[in-house]
Amino acid sequence: MPFRLLIAVGLLCVLLPLHRGAPGPDGTAPDPAHYRERVKAMFYHAYDSYLENAFPYDELRPLTCDGHDTWGSFSLTLIDALDTLLILGNVSEFQRVVDVLQDNVDFDIDVNASVFETNIRVVGGLLSAHLLSKKAGVEVEAGWPCSGPLLRMAEEAARKLLPAFQTPTGMPYGTVNLLHGVNPGETPVTCTAGIGTFIVEFATLSSLTGDPVFEDVARTALTRLWESRSDIGLVGNHIDVLTGKWVAQDAGIGAGVDSYFEYLVKGAILLQDKNLMAMFLEYNKAIRNYTRFDDWYLWVQMYKGTVSMPIFQSLEAYWPGLQSLIGDIDNAMRTFLNYYTVWKQFGGLPEFYNIPQGYTVDKREGYPLRPELIESAMYLYRATGDPTLLELGRDAVESIEKISKVECGFATIRDLRDHKLDNRMESFFLAETVKYLYLLFDPDNFIHNNGSTFDAVITPYGECILGAGGYIFNTEAHPIDPAALHCCRRLKEEQWEVEDLMREFYSLKRNRSKVQKKTMSSGPWQPPGGPGTLSAPETQDRSRGKKPGKQKVPLLSCPSQPFTSKLALLGQVFLDST
Protein backbone atom coordinates (compact mmCIF):
# COMPACT_ATOMS: atom_id res chain seq x y z
CA MET A 1 0.00 0.00 0.00
CA PRO A 2 1.51 3.35 -0.98
CA PHE A 3 2.03 5.84 1.83
CA ARG A 4 4.21 8.85 2.43
CA LEU A 5 6.38 10.06 5.23
CA LEU A 6 5.26 13.17 7.01
CA ILE A 7 6.84 15.23 9.77
CA ALA A 8 4.16 15.21 12.38
CA VAL A 9 4.25 18.79 13.46
CA GLY A 10 0.60 18.52 12.54
CA LEU A 11 0.10 16.57 15.74
CA LEU A 12 0.30 19.89 17.52
CA CYS A 13 -3.08 21.49 17.64
CA VAL A 14 -3.78 24.83 19.23
CA LEU A 15 -4.33 24.05 22.88
CA LEU A 16 -7.75 24.94 24.18
CA PRO A 17 -7.89 27.69 26.79
CA LEU A 18 -7.63 26.27 30.28
CA HIS A 19 -9.18 27.65 33.43
CA ARG A 20 -7.54 28.10 36.81
CA GLY A 21 -8.05 25.53 39.52
CA ALA A 22 -9.41 22.03 39.53
CA PRO A 23 -12.77 21.56 37.76
CA GLY A 24 -15.86 22.45 39.71
CA PRO A 25 -19.61 22.29 39.16
CA ASP A 26 -19.31 24.64 36.17
CA GLY A 27 -17.19 22.06 34.32
CA THR A 28 -14.01 24.10 34.15
CA ALA A 29 -10.93 22.13 33.12
CA PRO A 30 -8.05 21.24 35.47
CA ASP A 31 -5.32 23.85 35.84
CA PRO A 32 -2.11 22.42 34.28
CA ALA A 33 0.20 24.46 36.53
CA HIS A 34 -1.53 23.19 39.68
CA TYR A 35 -1.34 19.54 38.65
CA ARG A 36 2.15 19.91 37.27
CA GLU A 37 3.35 20.80 40.76
CA ARG A 38 1.32 17.98 42.27
CA VAL A 39 2.95 15.50 39.89
CA LYS A 40 6.41 16.85 40.67
CA ALA A 41 5.74 16.39 44.39
CA MET A 42 4.62 12.81 43.70
CA PHE A 43 7.88 12.11 41.89
CA TYR A 44 10.10 13.40 44.67
CA HIS A 45 8.15 11.61 47.37
CA ALA A 46 8.75 8.32 45.53
CA TYR A 47 12.30 9.12 44.36
CA ASP A 48 13.55 10.33 47.75
CA SER A 49 11.99 7.29 49.42
CA TYR A 50 13.90 5.00 47.03
CA LEU A 51 17.22 6.77 47.68
CA GLU A 52 16.75 6.77 51.45
CA ASN A 53 15.44 3.22 51.86
CA ALA A 54 16.20 1.06 48.82
CA PHE A 55 19.31 2.15 46.88
CA PRO A 56 21.35 0.31 45.53
CA TYR A 57 18.68 -2.36 45.11
CA ASP A 58 16.52 -2.38 41.98
CA GLU A 59 13.23 -1.27 43.50
CA LEU A 60 11.62 0.12 46.63
CA ARG A 61 9.33 -1.88 48.90
CA PRO A 62 7.19 0.99 50.19
CA LEU A 63 5.29 -0.80 52.96
CA THR A 64 8.41 -2.05 54.74
CA CYS A 65 10.62 0.89 53.68
CA ASP A 66 13.40 -1.25 52.22
CA GLY A 67 14.59 -2.48 48.83
CA HIS A 68 14.90 -5.64 46.75
CA ASP A 69 16.32 -6.71 43.39
CA THR A 70 13.72 -7.63 40.78
CA TRP A 71 14.83 -7.62 37.15
CA GLY A 72 18.57 -8.07 37.73
CA SER A 73 20.80 -6.10 40.03
CA PHE A 74 21.28 -2.74 38.35
CA SER A 75 19.94 -0.09 40.77
CA LEU A 76 17.11 -0.18 38.25
CA THR A 77 14.94 2.59 39.67
CA LEU A 78 17.85 5.03 39.42
CA ILE A 79 18.40 4.21 35.72
CA ASP A 80 14.69 4.35 34.99
CA ALA A 81 14.21 7.71 36.74
CA LEU A 82 17.23 9.47 35.23
CA ASP A 83 15.66 11.10 32.18
CA THR A 84 12.54 11.95 34.21
CA LEU A 85 14.79 14.11 36.40
CA LEU A 86 15.75 16.20 33.37
CA ILE A 87 12.17 16.44 32.12
CA LEU A 88 11.28 17.85 35.56
CA GLY A 89 14.19 20.30 35.22
CA ASN A 90 16.56 18.87 37.85
CA VAL A 91 19.93 19.04 36.07
CA SER A 92 22.06 18.88 39.23
CA GLU A 93 20.57 15.58 40.35
CA PHE A 94 20.84 14.23 36.80
CA GLN A 95 24.56 15.00 36.84
CA ARG A 96 25.02 13.40 40.26
CA VAL A 97 23.21 10.22 39.24
CA VAL A 98 25.30 9.88 36.07
CA ASP A 99 28.41 9.72 38.27
CA VAL A 100 26.73 7.29 40.71
CA LEU A 101 25.76 4.89 37.93
CA GLN A 102 29.26 4.86 36.48
CA ASP A 103 30.69 4.01 39.91
CA ASN A 104 28.15 1.41 41.02
CA VAL A 105 26.55 -0.47 38.12
CA ASP A 106 28.31 -3.65 37.02
CA PHE A 107 27.02 -6.02 34.33
CA ASP A 108 29.65 -8.73 34.96
CA ILE A 109 27.47 -10.50 37.49
CA ASP A 110 26.07 -14.01 37.83
CA VAL A 111 22.42 -13.04 37.45
CA ASN A 112 19.65 -14.46 35.28
CA ALA A 113 18.09 -11.40 33.66
CA SER A 114 15.03 -10.85 31.48
CA VAL A 115 16.26 -10.00 27.98
CA PHE A 116 13.15 -7.88 27.35
CA GLU A 117 13.22 -5.93 30.61
CA THR A 118 16.99 -5.38 30.58
CA ASN A 119 16.70 -3.95 27.09
CA ILE A 120 13.81 -1.56 27.63
CA ARG A 121 14.77 -0.38 31.12
CA VAL A 122 18.58 -0.57 31.28
CA VAL A 123 19.76 -0.24 27.67
CA GLY A 124 16.94 2.20 26.83
CA GLY A 125 17.44 4.25 29.99
CA LEU A 126 21.20 4.55 29.49
CA LEU A 127 20.86 5.47 25.80
CA SER A 128 18.31 8.16 26.58
CA ALA A 129 20.42 9.61 29.39
CA HIS A 130 23.48 9.55 27.13
CA LEU A 131 21.70 11.54 24.42
CA LEU A 132 20.30 14.03 26.97
CA SER A 133 23.61 14.49 28.82
CA LYS A 134 24.67 17.67 27.06
CA LYS A 135 21.27 19.27 27.62
CA ALA A 136 21.61 18.37 31.30
CA GLY A 137 24.92 20.21 31.55
CA VAL A 138 27.11 17.13 31.74
CA GLU A 139 30.62 17.74 30.39
CA VAL A 140 30.62 15.38 27.43
CA GLU A 141 33.75 13.87 25.91
CA ALA A 142 35.12 14.55 22.44
CA GLY A 143 33.11 12.69 19.83
CA TRP A 144 29.78 12.85 21.68
CA PRO A 145 27.07 11.73 20.88
CA CYS A 146 29.00 8.95 19.15
CA SER A 147 30.96 8.18 22.32
CA GLY A 148 30.58 8.60 26.06
CA PRO A 149 30.53 6.59 29.30
CA LEU A 150 26.75 6.02 29.37
CA LEU A 151 26.85 4.85 25.75
CA ARG A 152 29.59 2.39 26.63
CA MET A 153 27.51 1.12 29.56
CA ALA A 154 24.49 0.67 27.26
CA GLU A 155 26.63 -1.21 24.76
CA GLU A 156 28.07 -3.42 27.50
CA ALA A 157 24.58 -4.29 28.76
CA ALA A 158 23.31 -5.00 25.24
CA ARG A 159 26.25 -7.30 24.47
CA LYS A 160 25.28 -9.36 27.50
CA LEU A 161 21.92 -9.97 25.78
CA LEU A 162 23.27 -11.07 22.39
CA PRO A 163 23.74 -14.76 23.31
CA ALA A 164 19.95 -15.01 23.68
CA PHE A 165 19.57 -14.39 19.92
CA GLN A 166 21.72 -17.37 18.96
CA THR A 167 18.81 -19.67 18.06
CA PRO A 168 17.87 -21.50 14.84
CA THR A 169 15.09 -18.97 14.21
CA GLY A 170 16.95 -15.82 15.30
CA MET A 171 14.19 -15.19 17.84
CA PRO A 172 15.69 -14.71 21.33
CA TYR A 173 15.33 -16.68 24.52
CA GLY A 174 13.49 -14.80 27.24
CA THR A 175 16.23 -15.04 29.88
CA VAL A 176 20.03 -14.86 29.77
CA ASN A 177 22.70 -15.16 32.45
CA LEU A 178 24.79 -12.00 32.31
CA LEU A 179 27.98 -13.89 33.09
CA HIS A 180 27.52 -17.26 31.38
CA GLY A 181 25.00 -16.68 28.58
CA VAL A 182 21.88 -18.80 28.09
CA ASN A 183 21.52 -21.52 30.71
CA PRO A 184 21.48 -25.08 29.25
CA GLY A 185 18.01 -25.82 30.61
CA GLU A 186 16.44 -22.48 29.62
CA THR A 187 12.90 -22.70 28.27
CA PRO A 188 12.66 -21.88 24.56
CA VAL A 189 9.14 -20.46 24.91
CA THR A 190 9.10 -16.67 24.70
CA CYS A 191 6.26 -14.19 24.37
CA THR A 192 5.80 -12.22 21.15
CA ALA A 193 6.63 -8.89 22.78
CA GLY A 194 9.78 -10.46 24.23
CA ILE A 195 10.93 -11.15 20.66
CA GLY A 196 9.79 -8.04 18.80
CA THR A 197 10.76 -5.23 21.20
CA PHE A 198 14.39 -4.46 20.37
CA ILE A 199 14.59 -2.42 17.17
CA VAL A 200 14.42 1.03 18.82
CA GLU A 201 17.21 0.46 21.32
CA PHE A 202 19.36 -1.84 19.18
CA ALA A 203 19.16 0.27 16.00
CA THR A 204 20.05 3.35 18.05
CA LEU A 205 23.00 1.48 19.53
CA SER A 206 24.22 0.32 16.12
CA SER A 207 23.98 3.83 14.70
CA LEU A 208 25.85 5.40 17.61
CA THR A 209 28.60 2.76 17.90
CA GLY A 210 28.97 1.72 14.27
CA ASP A 211 28.49 -1.97 15.14
CA PRO A 212 25.63 -3.38 12.99
CA VAL A 213 25.16 -6.55 15.04
CA PHE A 214 22.52 -5.03 17.34
CA GLU A 215 20.23 -3.77 14.59
CA ASP A 216 20.78 -6.97 12.60
CA VAL A 217 19.55 -9.29 15.37
CA ALA A 218 16.58 -7.03 16.12
CA ARG A 219 15.53 -6.97 12.46
CA THR A 220 15.89 -10.73 12.15
CA ALA A 221 13.60 -11.26 15.16
CA LEU A 222 10.98 -8.89 13.70
CA THR A 223 11.12 -10.64 10.34
CA ARG A 224 10.74 -14.11 11.85
CA LEU A 225 7.63 -13.05 13.75
CA TRP A 226 6.17 -11.58 10.57
CA GLU A 227 6.82 -14.84 8.73
CA SER A 228 5.13 -16.78 11.56
CA ARG A 229 1.75 -15.01 11.37
CA SER A 230 -1.37 -17.03 10.60
CA ASP A 231 -3.22 -17.14 7.29
CA ILE A 232 -5.66 -14.53 8.62
CA GLY A 233 -2.79 -12.20 9.55
CA LEU A 234 -2.58 -12.61 13.33
CA VAL A 235 0.19 -13.62 15.73
CA GLY A 236 -0.17 -15.56 18.94
CA ASN A 237 1.08 -14.89 22.44
CA HIS A 238 3.99 -17.31 22.99
CA ILE A 239 6.24 -19.12 20.51
CA ASP A 240 9.02 -21.72 20.68
CA VAL A 241 12.16 -19.89 19.51
CA LEU A 242 13.88 -23.16 18.54
CA THR A 243 11.14 -24.58 16.33
CA GLY A 244 9.09 -21.49 15.43
CA LYS A 245 5.88 -23.24 16.57
CA TRP A 246 3.21 -21.25 18.39
CA VAL A 247 2.60 -22.45 21.95
CA ALA A 248 -0.07 -19.95 23.03
CA GLN A 249 -2.39 -19.07 20.14
CA ASP A 250 -4.43 -16.22 21.64
CA ALA A 251 -4.21 -13.11 19.45
CA GLY A 252 -4.84 -9.59 20.73
CA ILE A 253 -3.20 -6.24 21.38
CA GLY A 254 -2.40 -6.68 25.08
CA ALA A 255 0.02 -8.48 27.39
CA GLY A 256 2.60 -10.63 25.67
CA VAL A 257 2.06 -9.03 22.25
CA ASP A 258 1.63 -5.27 22.74
CA SER A 259 5.08 -3.74 22.22
CA TYR A 260 5.75 -5.84 19.11
CA PHE A 261 3.11 -3.85 17.24
CA GLU A 262 4.32 -0.60 18.72
CA TYR A 263 7.96 -1.21 17.82
CA LEU A 264 6.98 -1.81 14.20
CA VAL A 265 5.62 1.74 14.16
CA LYS A 266 8.44 3.26 16.19
CA GLY A 267 11.09 1.41 14.22
CA ALA A 268 9.53 2.71 11.02
CA ILE A 269 9.59 6.27 12.37
CA LEU A 270 13.10 6.05 13.77
CA LEU A 271 14.66 4.42 10.72
CA GLN A 272 12.30 5.80 8.04
CA ASP A 273 11.60 2.19 7.13
CA LYS A 274 8.56 1.64 4.89
CA ASN A 275 8.66 -2.14 5.27
CA LEU A 276 8.19 -1.99 9.03
CA MET A 277 5.24 0.34 8.64
CA ALA A 278 3.75 -1.87 5.94
CA MET A 279 3.90 -4.80 8.36
CA PHE A 280 2.05 -2.82 11.00
CA LEU A 281 -0.64 -1.64 8.59
CA GLU A 282 -1.32 -5.23 7.54
CA TYR A 283 -1.58 -6.28 11.18
CA ASN A 284 -3.87 -3.34 11.84
CA LYS A 285 -6.30 -4.59 9.20
CA ALA A 286 -6.42 -8.06 10.76
CA ILE A 287 -6.81 -6.62 14.26
CA ARG A 288 -9.78 -4.54 13.15
CA ASN A 289 -11.35 -7.43 11.24
CA TYR A 290 -11.08 -10.07 13.96
CA THR A 291 -10.57 -8.51 17.41
CA ARG A 292 -12.46 -5.20 17.40
CA PHE A 293 -16.01 -5.08 18.76
CA ASP A 294 -17.75 -1.76 19.57
CA ASP A 295 -14.40 0.02 20.03
CA TRP A 296 -13.18 -2.69 22.42
CA TYR A 297 -10.48 -5.18 21.44
CA LEU A 298 -10.98 -8.81 22.45
CA TRP A 299 -8.72 -11.87 22.35
CA VAL A 300 -9.30 -14.36 19.54
CA GLN A 301 -7.85 -17.66 18.28
CA MET A 302 -5.03 -16.68 15.87
CA TYR A 303 -5.94 -19.19 13.15
CA LYS A 304 -9.75 -19.04 13.28
CA GLY A 305 -10.53 -15.54 14.57
CA THR A 306 -13.06 -16.90 17.09
CA VAL A 307 -13.29 -15.08 20.44
CA SER A 308 -11.28 -16.77 23.18
CA MET A 309 -11.39 -14.10 25.91
CA PRO A 310 -13.82 -11.14 25.98
CA ILE A 311 -11.37 -9.36 28.26
CA PHE A 312 -9.88 -5.86 28.37
CA GLN A 313 -6.38 -5.84 29.85
CA SER A 314 -4.97 -2.65 31.36
CA LEU A 315 -1.87 -2.99 29.18
CA GLU A 316 -4.07 -2.49 26.11
CA ALA A 317 -4.67 1.13 27.08
CA TYR A 318 -1.62 2.18 25.01
CA TRP A 319 -3.59 1.49 21.83
CA PRO A 320 -5.43 4.86 21.52
CA GLY A 321 -2.05 6.62 21.68
CA LEU A 322 -0.78 4.39 18.90
CA GLN A 323 -3.91 5.06 16.84
CA SER A 324 -3.40 8.80 17.22
CA LEU A 325 0.14 8.56 15.87
CA ILE A 326 -1.04 7.01 12.62
CA GLY A 327 -3.70 9.71 12.31
CA ASP A 328 -6.72 7.66 13.39
CA ILE A 329 -7.95 10.21 15.94
CA ASP A 330 -11.68 9.40 15.88
CA ASN A 331 -11.22 5.70 16.59
CA ALA A 332 -8.57 6.52 19.17
CA MET A 333 -10.90 8.79 21.12
CA ARG A 334 -13.76 6.30 21.08
CA THR A 335 -11.56 3.52 22.43
CA PHE A 336 -9.98 5.86 24.96
CA LEU A 337 -13.39 6.83 26.31
CA ASN A 338 -14.29 3.15 26.77
CA TYR A 339 -11.14 2.66 28.84
CA TYR A 340 -11.75 5.88 30.79
CA THR A 341 -15.16 4.58 31.91
CA VAL A 342 -13.38 1.62 33.51
CA TRP A 343 -11.00 4.00 35.31
CA LYS A 344 -13.95 6.00 36.64
CA GLN A 345 -15.60 2.81 37.85
CA PHE A 346 -12.63 1.73 40.00
CA GLY A 347 -10.27 4.71 40.37
CA GLY A 348 -7.70 2.83 38.26
CA LEU A 349 -7.50 0.15 35.59
CA PRO A 350 -7.73 -3.44 36.87
CA GLU A 351 -5.33 -5.83 35.18
CA PHE A 352 -8.27 -7.72 33.59
CA TYR A 353 -11.80 -6.41 33.01
CA ASN A 354 -14.60 -8.66 31.76
CA ILE A 355 -16.33 -6.60 29.09
CA PRO A 356 -19.73 -8.41 28.96
CA GLN A 357 -20.00 -8.52 32.76
CA GLY A 358 -18.62 -5.00 33.28
CA TYR A 359 -16.47 -6.03 36.23
CA THR A 360 -13.03 -7.26 37.27
CA VAL A 361 -11.74 -10.80 36.70
CA ASP A 362 -10.93 -12.99 39.71
CA LYS A 363 -7.31 -12.59 40.89
CA ARG A 364 -6.73 -9.82 38.35
CA GLU A 365 -8.22 -6.92 40.33
CA GLY A 366 -4.96 -5.06 40.97
CA TYR A 367 -3.49 -1.84 39.57
CA PRO A 368 0.33 -1.59 39.80
CA LEU A 369 0.24 2.15 38.92
CA ARG A 370 0.60 1.48 35.21
CA PRO A 371 1.05 4.39 32.75
CA GLU A 372 -0.75 3.19 29.59
CA LEU A 373 -4.02 5.14 29.82
CA ILE A 374 -2.16 8.27 30.93
CA GLU A 375 0.23 7.82 28.02
CA SER A 376 -2.66 7.70 25.55
CA ALA A 377 -4.20 10.77 27.17
CA MET A 378 -0.97 12.70 26.66
CA TYR A 379 -0.69 11.77 22.98
CA LEU A 380 -4.33 12.52 22.29
CA TYR A 381 -4.17 15.84 24.13
CA ARG A 382 -1.22 16.89 21.99
CA ALA A 383 -3.28 16.00 18.93
CA THR A 384 -6.66 17.42 19.93
CA GLY A 385 -6.50 19.71 22.95
CA ASP A 386 -9.66 18.02 24.27
CA PRO A 387 -9.96 18.94 28.00
CA THR A 388 -11.45 15.50 28.74
CA LEU A 389 -7.89 14.22 28.49
CA LEU A 390 -6.72 16.61 31.19
CA GLU A 391 -9.54 15.31 33.35
CA LEU A 392 -8.09 11.82 33.11
CA GLY A 393 -4.78 13.25 34.27
CA ARG A 394 -6.49 14.94 37.19
CA ASP A 395 -8.32 11.73 38.12
CA ALA A 396 -5.06 9.76 37.99
CA VAL A 397 -3.27 12.17 40.33
CA GLU A 398 -6.15 12.20 42.79
CA SER A 399 -6.61 8.40 42.75
CA ILE A 400 -2.94 7.51 43.09
CA GLU A 401 -2.39 9.96 45.92
CA LYS A 402 -5.52 8.91 47.78
CA ILE A 403 -5.18 5.13 47.42
CA SER A 404 -1.51 4.23 47.05
CA LYS A 405 0.53 6.95 48.79
CA VAL A 406 2.28 5.70 51.92
CA GLU A 407 5.08 6.99 54.12
CA CYS A 408 7.81 5.48 51.92
CA GLY A 409 6.58 6.13 48.38
CA PHE A 410 3.62 4.73 46.43
CA ALA A 411 2.47 1.12 46.71
CA THR A 412 0.99 -1.17 44.09
CA ILE A 413 -2.77 -1.51 44.53
CA ARG A 414 -3.47 -5.21 45.04
CA ASP A 415 -7.24 -4.89 44.74
CA LEU A 416 -9.12 -1.89 43.36
CA ARG A 417 -12.31 -3.04 45.05
CA ASP A 418 -11.10 -2.61 48.63
CA HIS A 419 -7.84 -0.67 48.03
CA LYS A 420 -5.57 -3.25 49.63
CA LEU A 421 -1.90 -2.60 48.83
CA ASP A 422 1.14 -4.67 47.84
CA ASN A 423 4.68 -4.08 49.04
CA ARG A 424 6.16 -2.99 45.70
CA MET A 425 6.79 0.22 43.76
CA GLU A 426 7.72 -0.72 40.19
CA SER A 427 10.49 1.32 38.60
CA PHE A 428 8.15 2.19 35.72
CA PHE A 429 6.17 4.39 38.10
CA LEU A 430 9.00 6.95 37.95
CA ALA A 431 10.05 6.14 34.38
CA GLU A 432 6.59 6.26 32.80
CA THR A 433 3.56 7.05 34.95
CA VAL A 434 4.88 10.23 36.54
CA LYS A 435 6.64 11.29 33.33
CA TYR A 436 3.53 11.04 31.17
CA LEU A 437 1.44 12.83 33.79
CA TYR A 438 3.96 15.66 33.92
CA LEU A 439 4.16 15.95 30.13
CA LEU A 440 0.36 15.98 29.90
CA PHE A 441 0.31 19.06 32.13
CA ASP A 442 3.46 20.72 30.74
CA PRO A 443 2.84 21.85 27.14
CA ASP A 444 6.10 23.86 27.03
CA ASN A 445 8.42 21.01 28.01
CA PHE A 446 11.46 20.56 25.75
CA ILE A 447 10.13 17.10 24.83
CA HIS A 448 7.29 18.85 23.00
CA ASN A 449 9.69 20.89 20.85
CA ASN A 450 8.26 21.37 17.35
CA GLY A 451 11.61 22.10 15.72
CA SER A 452 11.68 25.81 16.48
CA THR A 453 14.81 25.39 18.62
CA PHE A 454 17.76 23.03 18.29
CA ASP A 455 21.42 22.56 19.14
CA ALA A 456 24.24 22.36 16.62
CA VAL A 457 26.94 19.96 17.77
CA ILE A 458 30.36 19.72 16.17
CA THR A 459 31.60 16.13 15.87
CA PRO A 460 34.92 14.94 14.44
CA TYR A 461 33.08 14.24 11.19
CA GLY A 462 30.97 17.36 10.79
CA GLU A 463 28.10 19.33 12.26
CA CYS A 464 25.10 17.59 13.79
CA ILE A 465 21.66 18.97 14.73
CA LEU A 466 20.17 17.67 17.99
CA GLY A 467 17.28 18.50 20.30
CA ALA A 468 14.91 19.64 17.56
CA GLY A 469 12.06 17.41 18.77
CA GLY A 470 10.47 14.29 17.36
CA TYR A 471 11.61 12.28 20.38
CA ILE A 472 10.69 8.61 20.15
CA PHE A 473 9.85 6.99 23.46
CA ASN A 474 10.89 3.42 23.93
CA THR A 475 8.47 1.10 25.67
CA GLU A 476 9.71 2.28 29.10
CA ALA A 477 9.16 5.96 28.15
CA HIS A 478 12.84 6.69 27.60
CA PRO A 479 13.02 9.37 24.86
CA ILE A 480 15.43 8.86 21.94
CA ASP A 481 16.44 11.81 19.74
CA PRO A 482 16.21 10.37 16.20
CA ALA A 483 18.59 12.99 14.82
CA ALA A 484 21.42 11.49 16.84
CA LEU A 485 21.38 8.39 14.67
CA HIS A 486 22.39 10.49 11.68
CA CYS A 487 25.23 12.11 13.60
CA CYS A 488 27.13 8.85 13.83
CA ARG A 489 25.81 6.68 11.03
CA ARG A 490 28.94 7.05 8.85
CA LEU A 491 31.40 7.66 11.67
CA LYS A 492 32.93 4.19 11.94
CA GLU A 493 33.01 3.62 8.19
CA GLU A 494 34.92 6.84 7.64
CA GLN A 495 37.14 6.09 10.62
CA TRP A 496 38.13 2.77 9.08
CA GLU A 497 39.00 4.54 5.80
CA VAL A 498 41.28 6.92 7.69
CA GLU A 499 42.90 4.05 9.54
CA ASP A 500 43.53 2.18 6.26
CA LEU A 501 45.15 5.25 4.75
CA MET A 502 47.37 5.71 7.77
CA ARG A 503 48.36 2.04 7.78
CA GLU A 504 49.27 2.31 4.10
CA PHE A 505 51.31 5.46 4.79
CA TYR A 506 53.21 3.90 7.67
CA SER A 507 53.72 0.70 5.69
CA LEU A 508 55.33 2.64 2.83
CA LYS A 509 57.46 4.57 5.31
CA ARG A 510 58.52 1.33 6.98
CA ASN A 511 59.41 -0.27 3.64
CA ARG A 512 61.62 2.71 2.74
CA SER A 513 63.28 2.38 6.11
CA LYS A 514 63.95 -1.30 5.44
CA VAL A 515 65.58 -0.48 2.10
CA GLN A 516 67.65 2.32 3.58
CA LYS A 517 68.64 0.66 6.85
CA LYS A 518 68.26 -3.00 5.75
CA THR A 519 66.46 -3.75 9.01
CA MET A 520 63.18 -5.42 9.72
CA SER A 521 60.31 -3.83 11.63
CA SER A 522 59.57 -5.49 14.92
CA GLY A 523 55.86 -6.14 14.39
CA PRO A 524 52.62 -5.01 12.79
CA TRP A 525 51.98 -1.31 12.81
CA GLN A 526 49.68 0.15 15.44
CA PRO A 527 48.51 3.77 15.60
CA PRO A 528 50.45 5.90 18.09
CA GLY A 529 49.23 5.00 21.57
CA GLY A 530 48.03 1.53 20.59
CA PRO A 531 44.97 0.05 18.85
CA GLY A 532 41.81 2.08 18.68
CA THR A 533 43.31 5.46 19.54
CA LEU A 534 41.91 7.05 16.40
CA SER A 535 38.48 6.82 17.94
CA ALA A 536 37.35 8.69 21.02
CA PRO A 537 39.50 7.64 23.99
CA GLU A 538 38.04 5.28 26.51
CA THR A 539 37.62 6.57 30.02
CA GLN A 540 39.45 4.92 32.86
CA ASP A 541 37.92 1.83 34.40
CA ARG A 542 35.07 2.71 36.69
CA SER A 543 35.38 1.83 40.30
CA ARG A 544 32.65 -0.64 41.12
CA GLY A 545 30.60 -0.25 44.25
CA LYS A 546 29.76 -3.54 45.95
CA LYS A 547 26.31 -4.28 47.24
CA PRO A 548 25.52 -6.25 50.35
CA GLY A 549 24.66 -9.89 49.80
CA LYS A 550 21.12 -10.42 48.60
CA GLN A 551 18.94 -13.36 47.74
CA LYS A 552 18.64 -13.87 43.97
CA VAL A 553 15.12 -13.44 42.66
CA PRO A 554 14.16 -16.06 40.04
CA LEU A 555 12.90 -14.47 36.84
CA LEU A 556 10.31 -15.65 34.36
CA SER A 557 11.65 -16.38 30.91
CA CYS A 558 9.06 -14.00 29.52
CA PRO A 559 7.91 -10.95 31.48
CA SER A 560 4.50 -11.48 33.00
CA GLN A 561 3.90 -7.74 32.92
CA PRO A 562 5.35 -6.45 29.64
CA PHE A 563 5.13 -2.75 29.16
CA THR A 564 3.89 -1.02 26.13
CA SER A 565 5.59 1.04 23.54
CA LYS A 566 5.83 4.77 23.90
CA LEU A 567 5.83 6.33 20.49
CA ALA A 568 7.35 9.57 19.23
CA LEU A 569 5.91 12.85 20.44
CA LEU A 570 5.64 15.17 17.47
CA GLY A 571 7.58 12.58 15.55
CA GLN A 572 7.27 11.50 11.97
CA VAL A 573 3.98 9.83 11.11
CA PHE A 574 3.14 7.58 8.17
CA LEU A 575 -0.20 8.17 6.52
CA ASP A 576 -1.92 6.43 3.65
CA SER A 577 -1.53 8.66 0.59
CA THR A 578 -5.16 8.02 -0.29
UniProtKB/TrEMBL annotation:
Q: What residue stretch is flagged as signal peptide?
A: 1-21
Is ATP-binding tagged as a keyword? no
Superkingdom of the source species: Eukaryota
Annotated Pfam families: Glyco_hydro_47
Q: Give its E.C. classification number.
A: 3.2.1.-
- Cite the residue spans of the region called Disordered: 516-561
The entry's keywords: Endoplasmic reticulum, Glycoprotein, Glycosidase, Hydrolase, Signal, Unfolded protein response
UniProt cross-references to SUPFAM superfamilies, sorted A to Z: Seven-hairpin glycosidases
Report the InterPro entries cross-referenced here. 6hp_glycosidase-like_sf (IPR012341), EDEM1/2/3 (IPR044674), Glyco_hydro_47 (IPR001382), Seven-hairpin_glycosidases (IPR036026)
Localization recorded for this chain is: Endoplasmic reticulum
Q: Which family does it belong to?
A: Belongs to the glycosyl hydrolase 47 family.
The protein's name: alpha-1,2-Mannosidase
> Which gene name belongs to this protein?
EDEM2
